[in-house]
Predict the 3D structure of the following.
Amino acid sequence: MKLLIVDDSLIMRRAIERSLAHTRFTEIHFANTGRVAVELFEKHRPDVVTMDITMPDMDGLTAVDLIMKKDPDAVILVVSALADKSTAVEAVKRGAQGFLLKPVTADSVHNALEEILAD
């Protein structure tokens, strides 16, 4: 399976990658802005996207909108430090299948992805 990890923090991108080291993901791509995420989504068509919200150039919610327009069946897990409930609701309204609050652990990332892939 292919995964696209989107976060402006290299530390967070690597943390998510490490948490999925021995899982079903065999091809992992990285983006540090929403704009790059949309470009890489078009190029690689990943099975799953983890998406930060607060990023330079293009925020994650706008990127979710654009990805969902390109592929309404895209599977997106929003991973954000924004803890207000309205942000999570907005992400799901726009098409994300799940919302995970930072800071994340290997187990929380793995479990959240398994849950949205099981649906």
Remarks:
- The helical segments are 10-19, 34-44, 60-70, 85-93, 106-118.
